[in-house]
Amino acid sequence: MPVKIRLQRHGSKKRPFYFIVIADARAPRDGKFIQKIGTYNPLTVPASVQLDRQKALDWLHKGAQPTDTVRRILSFKGVLFLKHLLRGVKLGLFDEAVAMEKFQTWHSSHELNVKKKSDDHRKSKFVKRGGGSGSAPVRRVVERKPEGGGTVAPEA
Predict the structure, then answer these.
(1) Is 100 exposed, middle or buried (0-12, 13-18, 19+ CB in 10 A)?
(2) Does residue 52 lie within any of the structural domains?
């Protein structure tokens, strides 16, 4: 039975939300699945992904094939890097403690990058709304014409 790790669409029209599932390749996209291992929301910046790393890694070791999008998600969350490191342990290139240390180093730097990207997006959104100009609010000067004729100084 060919097994795939793929996305199962939920959410309303034009508001996608996906479950990351393990399913038989012959089953329909939104049909029967073996196990749910996470969620993916592409509408947030950066896209929010909740994933059980251990279950995903176990299914990859069993031979489950991820689809292209799920492969990118697994790479983003570090599952494929962890699989790569564990393969190095299996080949005797280094021990498991070194592999976990490498993964933790990568994970901490990755989390900082994601946080920075999220903060930058939040700041740019704030500036677009007009809240981040950094200076005092601009007052518009309106000239009024007097009722009886003549000129009047502009109001501030």
Answers:
(1) middle
(2) yes
Number of domains in the chain: 1
Distance (Å, whole) CA 36 – CA 18: 11
For 110, the domain range is 3-126
> What is the 3 state secondary structure string of 33-57?
CCEEEEEEECCCCCCEEEECHHHHH
User: Which CATH number belongs to the domain containing residue 82 in this structure?
Assistant: 3.30.1320.10
Phi, psi of 82 (to 5 degrees): -65, -40
**Distance, CA of 91 to CA of 39 (rounded, Å):** 33
State pLDDT tens for residues 38-52. Answer: 999 999 888 899 999
What kind and span of H or E run contains 104? helix 96-128
- More confident call, 30 vs 5: 5
Q: How far apart are CA 93 and CA 87, in angstroms?
A: 9
Assess if residue 76 is contained within a domain.
yes
